[in-house]
Specification:
This protein is of the alpha+beta class and 238 residues long. The protein is built from 9 helices and 10 strands. The protein has 2 domains: 141 residues, Jelly Rolls, CATH 2.60.120.10; 76 residues, Arc Repressor Mutant, subunit A, CATH 1.10.10. The protein starts with 9 loop residues before the first helix and ends in an 8-residue tail after the last helix. 24% of the residues are buried.
């Protein structure tokens, strides 16, 4: 297999030629159709996937059927959950679904184990990606616990719009994006439509006034700044 794909991952392009040769010889490029469930709870990872094209949604589903989107894997990234399961030799606790047609490099478990133990550069690549995504997951927890739903919804609509002006999603799917109830999302979207920020049709949310949504989304940063300014200094007295 050609080594050209390694250039899509800056951390891998710094690998020693010997290690790059191992990766290209023992890995394979796979194609996954849109809508495919790539992994799910209880399954054991056999490969680390590095995305070349497309997008994968990783989500958690509770026993009651409630969903929350944890993160998305884009081209040039790897899946931190897969990394964690490979390192710990555990099964998946969430599912990954191809949101688009996907092309990815599959690095077999045995190759992953060998390179993590033998190559400092490869190990740095793995743990750098891992630490960044863990930070993102902590941010999700903080948002769910402390941030207003309307602000989070505005932010997510802006993120998902991707320059098209609209989002193909049901209220239930948007609820999964934010880890809340469908009724809450329906109420907030109704308010956004009343304000003239969006227009709704079956399975589609059209962003009519992106600036209005951006102003609401920016309230989070402004509130954080105000809180920091107002917070009293800690006393130096004992």
């Amino acid at each position: 297999m050609s080594a050209d794909w390694i250039k899509q991952f800056p951390g891998l392009s710094r690998l020693e030629p010997r290690v790059q040769d191992v990766l290209t010889r023992k890995s394979t490029v796979i194609a996954v159709p849109e809508g495919t469930v790539i992994f799910g709870p209880g399954k054991s990872p056999e490969n680390l996937l590095l995305l070349l094209q497309g997008r994968v949604r990783v989500q958690q589903v509770s026993e009651a059927g409630r969903e929350i989107v944890l993160y998305r894997v884009e081209a040039g990234q790897s899946c931190v959950l897969t990394t964690a399961c490979l390192l710990a030799h555990e099964n998946y606790s969430a599912e990954g679904i191809a949101e688009t047609n996907v092309r990815a490099v599959a690095i077999p478990r045995a190759v992953f184990d060998d390179l993590v133990s033998q190559s400092v550069t490869f190990r740095d690549f793995i743990f750098t990606a891992y630490s960044r995504r863990i930070t993102d997951l902590f941010q999700i927890i903080e948002d769910i616990a402390f941030q207003r739903v309307d602000i989070r919804l505005a932010q997510r609509l802006i993120d998902l719009e991707r320059g098209t002006g609209q989002i193909k999603a049901t209220h239930q799917q948007m609820a999964a994006e934010l880890g809340t109830a469908r009724e809450v999302i329906s109420r907030q979207l109704g308010e956004f439509q009343r304000r003239g920020w969006i227009r709704q049709s079956r399975g589609t949310i059209e962003l009519v006034d992106l600036a209005g949504l951006e102003r609401l989304a920016a309230l989070d940063m402004e509130a954080a700044g105000s809180l920091a300014t107002a917070r009293p200094q800690a006393s130096t007295h004992t």
